[in-house]
Every structure is written in structure tokens, then in C-alpha cells.
Design goal:
The chain contains 20 helices and 14 strands. It has helices spanning 8-25, 58-66, 70-81, 104-108, 110-117, 147-165, 181-195, 207-219, 230-254, 264-269, 272-283, 317-330, 347-357, 395-402, 404-412, 424-427, 435-455, 473-495, 499-518, 531-554; strands at 54-56, 87-93, 97-102, 131-135, 169-176, 260-263, 286-289, 292-295, 306-309, 335-341, 366-371, 374-378, 381-382, 420-423. It binds one RNA strand through helix 2, helix 7, strand 9, strand 14 and helix 17.
Length: 562
RNA sequence: GUCCCCGUAGCUCAGUGGAUAGAGCAACCGCCUCCUAAGCGGUAGGUCGCAGGUUCAACUCCCGCCGGGGACACCA
């Protein structure tokens, strides 16, 4: 790996570690602290610019074990670090922070790195070789995708992209609950609607049922004259196909794509349930009681044991879920990520216990994300949603109102474990209130500058880039932000929190706008073209690459013009 | 009753144990004879729900309260 592929902060971090070990060898620090020295020294970017480009609190951490004053420890490290070429100065501040200021030219080399790596700047290898099954949405094929599904459609897709960028081998999977009572109710509801009869008790209401029924009959009028039970079965199966096709179409328009559409039926027909049962029995956590077959999930912290097979011989949904998990692991996935709605939070304990019953590590092999509710505001008040009354907002309706970019971006920029309120009126506005425009505008603005640079025949490209030109504080700030990107992406992947990428982009856009107001990129009037113009244009190009890469991770477009 | 999530500026919310807790909006004051003003600068706004504990260091971790939301089936 060439040095340009290791970030400057990683190099500094490694230098600090070397400096500590050297100090121990030289007897400046006691030998006993060797085991206290972390594998990688964490650096942070100080909020306050007076505190340098990077800061480390390592001296504070090592002070106690080495029996020294933290400022003395810092002072020993300071002299060992000062000789490193990339570092221009090291200050000791406060109780013993090491504040490191980088040599500006070496920091500016980042522009070359970004413009060389292009799309892959921000990719990492933290999850290399890890096979991840990412399951999200998994709606019943009995109705349109609603607001809750939409949150997952955006966040799940972004998480998939982020995990891939971190090197993981990701398969996105949609589990189709196409088996059981709900499907029968769906079929019966369609049939009733077609015949003009009242929808059955607990059946599916809503205009969409009559719409589907009508188009099924229009496709094949003979449906109406079929004998029972064939007719209701046909309504169920054709309705299923219609609805699933509709969900696929809507998700496709939304930019969310799945690698696997996994049918619950296939789980049963393919024998996965039997395989799972055998495996669980072998692990010794299955027992019979009161005529039912149970899984002793309480062995692993669940609050009660769960039924696999009911007394009447039917399999429970829990049995399907369990078999599905074991099936995923059987397909070679190391980590199974589930993205579930808040109403499923009771599942977390049992899913983890299930994994443990199957002999897996519930802390590693399975990861459950619980998404909180999305409320929607329009015209200054909350839109009351009720499935029964048919006032649901679908993914498609939301996209019609605000567009794919605004919908995706807004849904992604909040952590999923907090309830969010989505204000339709704000999303229609092209102002700072709507952060997606703030970020996209930065991209469009830079694209405009670069177009002008080309027209003015300013030499761009790396052969015209001189890092020593970039000495302005704003340039330094911008370079610092650009350097953060790979860490942000890796952290977002590790924590399964794609919203961190969105927040970072807002920060980066802000830093760029400030740079833009203070640092003129293109020559003014008759000013001759200089190396500074070329170097700044390259800095702009690098910034745009990073914004583009970030927006790509969110599935949001990066417009050239606005 | 048990479990999960939340409580940070007037509002909507960020904040992986670090220094003076941040952003956008709303309020007020400024900045376009020249690169996109969908932008930038400034002022004002805080007992980080309350009380303990751990730590050199707590909005962050632990314990207990208070307040808000949600979940608890041989339902799907």
C-alpha cells in the first residue's frame, strides 16, 4: 500500500505510538505501561481551531499508570513528535492534551489522493470478507408500502451502500410474508370487493382493494364465474402477484433495489423448517409440553419460551422466523441484520435467543435495528394515519409530494431509533430549512465554478496542483473536513448509522460555502492566471468528488446545476 | 407489572468519555457594479429532565426517580 492510501491521521496516530514506545525504550516512561498503550492512538479533530489540526489525550490516559504528571508525559511525547516531517508543531494544552498542527503542504496532498482515488475515496476494508445479510422492509404483499416502510427503504438502502463501502459483502433481502391467515384474508377481501359484497370481518379495507379487484377482473373476466374454493384462491394468488409487482415497481422508482426476494412459502416448501428443527433439537433447546413444541429461549435471556408447533400441529410465525434465520446462516452469512419497526421490538430478545439456541453468538451473528415511527405534518398539522380509515400515506404518495431526493435524504438524516416528524411543506421548500438542498447546492455551485474554470482555460488536473499554495485558514479547514470522510463512512458502517454520512455532508457543505466566500477561486477581472487558481480549482474538484461520493452512499443525486 | 426508545436553545434536532455543548429554522444587524445570495458574516438565545455514583475528565457510562412515546399472544 502506498503512503497516499493511508490517511494522514493514521500516519500521525502511528507516529505517536512509535513515540511512546521509543520513550519507554529510552527509560523516559516506565516499562509497565507498555500494556496500557492502545493498538491505535485515537485522534480527534478539535472544534476549536486554536487547538491544532488534531488532538490526542493519550498523555492523560498514560499519566496514571506511569505515575507521572500528565503534562510531563505530554512533554516527553512532544519532543519525540516534533521531528516528524508532516507535523509542523506540537503544543501541550490544558491538563495535558497534545495539540498537533500539520504541515500545510502535506495536508494538501489529500487533494491528489482524492482526485486519484475518485469514487473509491471513502472506501475502507474494515468489513472486508464479512458476508452480511441485510433484511429490511419485508412488508406483507397485501397492501401498498406505507410511511414506515419508506423509512426503511431509504435507510436500509443507504446502510447497504455504507456497509459495501466498508468492504462488506452485502446481500439486501426482502422477506415476503406470503403464507398464512393474512394472505387468506387478502384473497377473501379482494373477492368480496369484486362481487360487491361487504369486506369480511378483520379483512383489508381501503380503496386499493377495490382497485386491485377491478383490474384483476378486467384482466380475466372468467374469474367471476369460477367455482369455490378456486375463485378465492385465484383472487389471493393474482392479488399477491399484482401487489408484489407494485411494491417492486415503487421501490425501483425510489432507487432501492433488492438482491433477494425471499418467499416465506419457499422456506417451507424447500424444507428449511425441517432443517432448522433438526438443528435446534441437536442443540438441545427444544421440548414438548401441553401438546405443543417449544424452543427454550429463556436459556438465553428471553422472557418466556416460544412455541414452534402449536398443539393443533400448525407452525407458528416464530417457527418461520427461526427457520429463516437458520436458513440465512446456512447460506453463509456471517452477520444477519434485521431492520424492524418499533412494534416489533419485542422480537429482539427472542431473535437473539433464537440465534443462541442455534449455537451462534447473538452479539456478533445477529443485529437488530428498531426504527421508530414517522409522523407526517402537512399544512401545519399532523396528518392522522389510520389503516382502518384508509388514511395511510404510501411511499408513492410521499415521493409525488416531495420527490425522491428530499424524501430519501430527510428519512436518512435522523438516527432510526428516534421518532421523526416529516414536514411535507418544508420538504417542498428550496431553502436552508431543507438540508438536502443545502448539500446539493454546494455540489451544483462547485460544478459551476469548475465549468467556468474550464472556460477561462485555467489549467486543472493534478499536474497543475501545487499543495504549498493552499495556506489560507479556510482551505485548511476544508482539507481537514475532506480528510474526515473515510472515518465517517467506516464509523457509519460499524455503528449501522448512515445518518452520520448525511450530517457530515451538511458540515462539509457549510465548510465549502465559507471557503467560497473567503477564497476567490477564479481570477478576478484581468488578473493573470496563477498557480493558486489551479490549486484552488483542484481543491474544488476534490470537494465535489467527496460530496458526490457521500450523496451516492445515500442514494441521493448530486446535481451539476440547480 | 416487565421490557424498549426518548427528554439538549423558543421550534426541529445533531453530538463514538475530552478543552468554551453545536446546526438549521424563528428574532435582530450586516454582505451581491466580478466564480450560483438555494450563499456568507455577526448579535441574542442553555441548571444538556432531577438526584447520586465511576473517572484525571460525564450530555455521553452505571444506579434511582420524574415526564413523554411504544411493545408485551399457541395474533400476524
Amino acid at each position: 500500500m502506498s503512503s497516499s492510501e493511508i490517511s494522514l491521521s493514521e500516519q500521525i496516530s502511528a507516529h505517536i505510538r512509535t513515540a511512546i514506545l521509543a520513550a519507554i525504550d529510552a527509560g523516559q516512561l516506565p516499562k509497565e505501561i507498555s500494556k496500557e498503550v492502545p493498538e491505535s492512538i485515537s485522534l480527534e479533530r478539535p472544534k476549536n481551531r486554536d487547538h491544532g489540526d488534531y488532538a490526542s489525550s493519550i498523555a492523560l490516559q498514560l499519566a496514571k499508570p506511569s505515575g507521572k504528571n500528565p503534562r510531563d508525559v505530554a512533554s516527553i511525547l512532544q519532543s519525540n513528535l516534533a521531528v516528524i516531517p508532516e507535523i509542523s508543531k506540537v503544543d501541550i494544552a490544558g491538563p495535558g492534551f497534545l495539540n498537533i498542527t500539520l504541515n500545510r503542504a502535506s495536508q494538501a496532498e489529500l487533494v491528489s489522493t482524492i482526485l486519484t482515488l475518485k469514487k473509491s475515496y471513502g472506501h475502507s476494508t474494515g468489513l472486508k470478507g464479512v458476508r452480511i445479510n441485510l433484511e429490511f422492509i419485508s412488508a406483507n404483499p397485501t397492501g401498498p408500502l406505507h410511511l414506515g416502510h419508506t423509512r426503511w427503504a431509504a435507510v436500509g438502502d443507504a446502510l447497504g451502500r455504507v456497509l459495501s463501502a466498508a468492504g462488506a459483502d452485502v446481500v439486501r433481502e426482502f422477506y415476503i410474508n406470503d403464507r398464512g391467515n393474512q394472505m387468506d384474508l387478502f384473497g377473501a377481501s379482494l373477492e368480496a370487493a369484486a362481487l360487491g359484497k361487504p369486506i369480511p370481518e378483520d379483512g383489508y379495507q381501503g380503496q386499493y382493494i377495490s382497485d386491485i379487484a377491478a383490474s384483476l377482473v378486467a384482466q380475466d373476466p372468467q374469474l367471476m364465474s369460477m367455482p369455490e374454493p378456486q375463485r378465492v384462491n385465484e383472487f389471493r394468488e393474482r392479488g399477491y402477484a399484482w401487489q408484489l409487482g407494485d411494491q417492486k415497481r415503487v421501490l425501483d422508482n425510489f432507487g432501492t433495489h433488492f438482491d433477494v426476494w425471499f418467499s416465506e412459502r419457499s422456506l417451507h416448501e424447500g424444507g428449511s423448517v425441517d432443517v432448522a428443527m433438526v438443528k435446534l433439537r441437536k442443540q438441545g433447546h427444544v421440548f414438548e409440553e401441553e401438546g405443543a413444541t417449544w424452543l427454550r429461549t429463556t436459556d438465553f435471556g428471553d422472557d418466556k419460551d416460544r412455541v414452534l408447533t402449536k398443539a393443533n400441529g400448525d407452525l407458528t410465525y416464530f417457527a418461520s422466523d427461526t427457520a429463516y434465520y437458520i436458513n440465512k446462516r446456512g447460506r453463509g452469512f456471517d452477520i444477519c441484520i434485521y431492520m424492524l419497526g418499533a412494534d416489533h421490538h419485542g422480537y429482539v430478545g427472542r431473535l437473539k435467543a433464537t440465534a443462541a439456541c442455534a449455537g451462534d453468538d447473538p452479539e456478533y451473528n445477529i443485529h437488530v435495528l428498531i426504527g421508530q415511527l414517522v409522523k407526517i405534518m402537512e399544512g401545519g398539522e399532523e396528518v392522522k394515519l389510520s389503516k382502518r380509515a384508509g388514511t395511510i400515506i404510501t411511499l408513492e404518495e410521499l415521493v409525488e409530494k416531495v420527490g425522491v431526493d428530499a424524501a430519501r435524504y430527510t428519512l436518512i438524516r435522523y438516527p432510526v431509533d428516534t421518532p421523526m416528524i416529516l414536514d411535507v411543506d418544508v420538504l417542498k421548500r428550496n431553502t436552508n430549512e431543507n438540508p438536502v438542498y443545502y448539500v446539493q447546492y454546494a455540489h451544483a455551485r462547485i460544478a459551476g465554478v469548475l465549468r467556468n474554470a474550464q472556460e477561462l482555460k485555467i489549467p486543472v488536473g493534478l499536474e497543475n496542483f501545487d499543495p504549498s499554495q493552499l495556506t489560507h485558514d479556510r482551505e485548511n479547514e476544508l482539507l481537514g473536513s475532506l480528510a474526515e470522510f473515510p472515518k465517517i463512512v467506516a464509523g457509519a458502517a460499524e455503528m449501522r448509522e448512515p445518518h452520520r454520512v448525511a450530517r457530515y455532508l451538511e458540515e462539509l457543505a457549510g465548510v465549502y460555502h465559507r471557503f467560497y466566500s473567503d477564497c476567490r477561486v477564479l481570477p478576478l477581472g484581468d488578473e493573470p492566471i496563477s498557480a493558486l487558481h489551479s490549486s484552488r480549482a483542484n481543491l474544488c474538484a476534490a470537494t465535489n468528488q467527496v460530496i458526490k461520493n457521500g450523496l451516492d452512499l445515500l442514494g441521493v443525486s448530486a446535481p451539476e446545476k440547480m
